[in-house]
C-alpha cells in the first residue's frame, strides 16, 4: 500500500471507516431535502425561467433586442460565453491534470467541480447558439452536405475551431464524469429502499457490479481519459482566444492570448469551485472531506494562475507601447483612461491585487476570506472579458464610428438567467448525485485518512502518536549523546 | 453434482488480498473479486490480465485523425476551395496549420468516445443491465471473493471453506449455479 509522509496533513479528518464515507455522502441524497434547498431551488428556477423568457423573446424578435450596435458588434453575448467557458475549466483540470500528477486532494472535489464544468460549458454553449438569431439553423455549423452548391463550413476560421473545441470539451467532460459516477450510482442503488429510487439508480448505474476486471478497466480508462482531457483543457481556451487573436483589432491581435486566456480560465474556474464548495461542504456536512487544506491548495492554484494573469496584463500593456504601433498603444491607454476606465480598474483590482493576498497563510486558510475573494475573482474575470471585447471595439479606426455600449434589459436578463439555470442544474446535482467520488475517496482512506495516519485505525482512537513521538525524541537524544562521545 | 459457487466476505481489502495470496499459493483458483473500489495489487494475484483498452483508444484516435485529415482536405481543398482574406486553398500542406486545431479536437473526440463505448460494452455495463454483485454491501464497505467448484476440482467444498475460514473472513455463503 502507498505510504504518505506523516507531516502531510490528512485529507480525510476524523475516524472514518469505509462505511462512514458511504453514509456521509449518501445520507443527503436519501434524506428529505432541507427547506433551504427548496428555497434556493425556487429562486434559481425563477431566475432561470426569466432567462429562458428573455431568450425566447430574443429568438422571436431578433438580435436587435440586444444593446449591440454596428461599432460594438460583439458585446455581452460573447463576454458571457467566454466567462462561462472559463469557469468550466476548473473541473476537468482538477480531475484530469491533477490525476496525472497523482494529487490525492482532488478526490474530494473533482466530482462536483466536474459537474460545475459541464453545467458551465452548457451555459457557455447557449450564447453562440442564441446569437445565431435563428436557433433552428444551428446545425449549419456542422460540415453537412447541403443544397448551397455543396458550400462547406470554413475550417480555416477560429469560430469553427471553437464549435469543435467546445462540443468536444463538453462531451468528453461528460463522459469522463459519468464513467466515474457509475460505481457510485451502484452504491446508492444497493442502499436504496424506495422502489422508484432503486429503479432510477439501477438504470443510472448500468448494472455495475465492481468486479476485479471492471476495476482494472476503470482505472485504465480514467487514466487515458485524463491523458486525453489534459491537452483538451488547454486547447479549448486557447482556441477561444484565437477568436480574438487572429483578428486585426488593436487590443485583440496579440500572441500572448492563448496562455493568458488559459491561465485566466483556470483562475476563474477555481474561484467558482471555491464559491460552490464552501457552501456545499457546510450544507451537506462534508467538512471532514473538504476542509481547510483543500481550500488552501485551491487558493494556491488561484494565486499562481492569478499571478500569470497579472503578468499577462502588464506584458500586454508594455508591448502596446514597445511595439510602436500607435493604434495598439491607443487601445491600451483608452482602456485605462477612456470612458470604460471603471471596467479596467475593476478588472485590475479583482484579478491582479486580490490573488496576491493569498501569499499570506492566514488569509488563504480563512474560509470566510476565501469565499469573499472567490466572488471578487468571478466579478473580475467577467470584467476582463468585457474590457477586452467592448473597449477594444468601441473606438473604431474611424472616429465617426466611435460609440458606447449600453446593455439592454434582455442582455442582462439572458446573462442573469444563465446564472439561474446553472444553479438549477447544480442544485439538482447536489440533491440526487453523489457529490464526492466515493470509490476514489475510499482508496485514499488508509493512506491519507487522519486515524490511519496516526496509526490508530478505525475504531479505537487512543492517542498512540504521542508515544511514537517520545520514542523518536529518545532516539535523537541518544544519538546525540553518542555523537558527543 | 451441481457446480457450486462460494462467496467469502471480508471487511478489509488488505485481509482479502492476503487471503487470496494464501489460497492461490495452495493452488486454489479465485474466480472473481467484488469490491467497492479498486484494490491495488489484486489483479496479478487472482490472474486478471491488464486490460487492452489503451490500445483501442489509440486506434480510435488514429481513426479520428484520419477522418479529420481526409475530411478537411476534401472540404477545403478538393470540393470547394475558398479564397479567404487573400489566402487561397492551394494544397493541404499549404493550409495545414489552420487545420491542426480541429484535427486535434476530432482525434480526442473519437479516442475518448470510442474508448468509453468499448469500455461499457466490454464490461457489459449498459443502461438497463442487471447488477451481478452477490451482496449489496459490496458497493459499500465489504469485499467478496468468489470461488467456483468447477474451477477447483482438486478440492472439495468443505476443503475450500476450511481454507477460507483461515483467512479472516466475516461471512461465508454457498450457492448452486443455476
Q: How is the topology of this model organized?
A:
The complex is a heterodimer of chains A (485) and B (178).
Chain A: H1 18-30, H2 35-61, H3 76-87, H4 90-100, H5 106-131, H6 158-191, H7 195-204, H8 212-245, H9 257-283, H10 292-322, H11 326-337, H12 341-356, H13 361-364, H14 367-394, H15 409-432, H16 438-448, H17 450-453, H18 465-484
Helix pairs in contact in A: 1-16, 2-15, 3-5, 3-9, 3-14, 4-5, 4-8, 5-6, 5-9, 5-15, 6-7, 6-8, 8-9, 9-10, 9-14, 10-11, 10-12, 11-12, 12-14
Chain B: E1 4-10, H1 13-25, E2 30-34, H2 42-46, H3 53-79, H4 92-123, E3 143-148, H5 157-165, E4 171-176
Antiparallel strand pairs in B: 1-3, 1-4, 2-3
Helix pairs in contact in B: 3-4
Record keyword descriptors for this entry.
heterodimer; A: 485 residues; mainly alpha; Formate dehydrogenase/DMSO reductase fold; 18 helices; 71% helix; B: 178 residues; alpha+beta; Alpha-Beta Plaits; four-stranded antiparallel sheet; rod-shaped
Number of structural domains of chain A: 1
Report the biggest beta sheet of chain A as strand number plus sense, adding barrel if it closes. none
Element order of chain B: H for helix, E for strand: EHEHHHEHE
Mean pLDDT of chain B comes to 85
Largest interface: A-B, 68 and 64 residues
Count of individual beta strands of chain B: 4
Structural class of chain A: mainly alpha
Tally of DSSP helical segments of chain B = 5
Amount of helix of chain A: over 70%
Number of strands of chain A: 0
Beta-strand residue percentage of chain B: 5-15%
Described by its quaternary structure, the protein is heterodimer
Which class of secondary structure composition applies to the elements of chain B?
alpha+beta
Radius of gyration of chain B, in Å, reads 26 Å
Report on the biggest sheet of chain B: 4 strands, antiparallel
CATH class of the largest domain in chain B: Alpha Beta
What is the CATH architecture term of chain A? Up-down Bundle
Could you give a short description of this structure?
The complex is a heterodimer of chains A (485) and B (178). With 485 residues, chain A is mostly helical. Chain A has helices at residues 18-30, 35-61, 76-87, 90-100, 106-131, 158-191, 195-204, 212-245, 257-283, 292-322, 326-337, 341-356, 361-364, 367-394, 409-432, 438-448, 450-453, 465-484.
